[in-house]
Amino acid sequence: MSTLLKGGGSFSLNEGISLQDWLDNDESSNNSIDETKMSVQKKMTLRSEKIEYTVRKHRTAKRLKLVISCDGNCTVTLPWRMGFVSADDFIRKNAQWVLEKMKAMKKIGKNSLFARHDRVEYLKLKEHARAMVARRLEKYAEFYGFEYKGVAIRNQKTRWGSCSSKGNLNFNYKILLLPQRHADYIIVHELCHLKEFNHGKRFWNLVGQTIPEYEKIVKQLKVL
Ligand SMILES: [Zn+2]
After folding, report:
1. How far is the CA of 68 from the centre of ligand 1 (A)?
2. Global pTM exceeds 0.70
3. Exposure winner among 20, 108, 162, 184, fewest CB in 10 A?
């Protein structure tokens, strides 16, 4: 996921966190260094904020391109013949956009599924996850007419959720960072185990009553 500012002047910020973005992001981080590129790290003070950025020259670049990546890093790519100073000028000219987007992307990056969360972040995310799960569970439990005992939000390494034979539902706190429809699927999945404690046809029929596209979601969650 990244946000792009081109010399021509059209901006876009992808605010949402979608599965496709994660997958795309993984692929694009495999860039290897080659000799058609030249890059320097630079610093500047922009409206009294210190920023760091990377300026790259690329032999095939046709025009100036500015990208703020999902961790908030700023990279300007220049056509080979352009002077490095044109990157500084471009950033200064678009100072507000650059500062806003760097901040926004840093925030999104911190909340991403693959970020490492320290204890404080974990507790905060856990609290938000608990509220979100409670809200959605109430809705789906009412639809199905199922009753559950307790709900726990945990830091589980390998599972999104589980359902105990006593009727307790457990969810991974990272469910909060999934697209809502995927989170809903996980909630419905565990909820339906209250009735069908297996993955048989009747179980999936139950799930499909509220998440008819569950097969697609199951596939997407598998590649995460
Ligand atoms: Zn299951």
Report:
1. 39
2. no
3. 20
Ligand 1 centre from 124 Cα, in Å?
27
pLDDT at 28 over 50: no
- Domain of 180 in residue numbering reads as 119-222
54 and 73 belong to one structural domain = yes
Q: Are 192 and 124 contained in the same domain?
A: yes
pLDDT for 130 = 96
Give yes or no for a contact between 57 and 39, defined as CB atoms under 8 angstroms apart: yes
> What is the bridge-based pairing of β-strands 2-6 and 65-69?
antiparallel
Pseudo-torsion of CA 136, 207, 112, 172, nearest 10°?
A: 70
Same domain? For 94 and 125 the reply is no
Q: What is the pLDDT of residues 163-181, one digit of tens each?
A: 998 999 999 999 998 889 9
Centroid of ligand 1 to alpha carbon of 35 (angstroms): 50
What CA–CA distance (Å, rounded) separates 130 from 139?
14
